[in-house]
Amino acid sequence: MIVAVDTETTGLDIFHGCRPFMISACDGNYDYLWEGQVNGWTREVTWSNSEKQEAIDLMDDAKTIVFHNALFDIRALSSIG
User: Fold this and answer.
1) Burial group, residue 70, by CB count within 10 angstroms (0-12, 13-18, 19+)
2) Judging by beta carbons within 10 Å of its beta carbon (0-12, 13-18, 19+), is residue 55 exposed, middle or buried?
3) pTM of the model
4) 9-46: per-residue pLDDT in tens?
5) Which of the two ends of the chain, N or C, has the fewest CB atoms closer than 10 A to its terminal CB?
């Protein structure tokens, strides 16, 4: 299975606290969307373990993962575990 994955983040500087608040994916049959909760005052993002695990499981099952900007998206995903 081929999966396309993209992240939306609170900013571009992952090294200084910007984090993904949304992960989207598509396998050609289904569209997937996972959302973290963003604190409007601090811009800190919290993720439920189940949301993260669903995304991880989908990517683990993929034979190929396609990213639009792989270096950024992989770094962003790594920042949330």
Assistant:
1) exposed
2) buried
3) 0.88
4) 998 888 888 899 999 999 999 999 999 999 989 989 99
5) C
Average pLDDT, the chain: 93
**Do the Cβ atoms of 19 and 76 come closer than 8 Å?**
yes
* DSSP secondary structure letters along the chain: -EEEEEEEES-S-GGGT--EEEEEEE-SS-EEEEEPEEPTTT--EE--HHHHHHHHHHHHH-SEEEESSHHHHHHHHHHT-
Closest CA to 4 of 29, 24, 33, 34: 24
Q: Give the residue from 25, 12, 31 showing the smallest Cα distance to 76.
A: 12
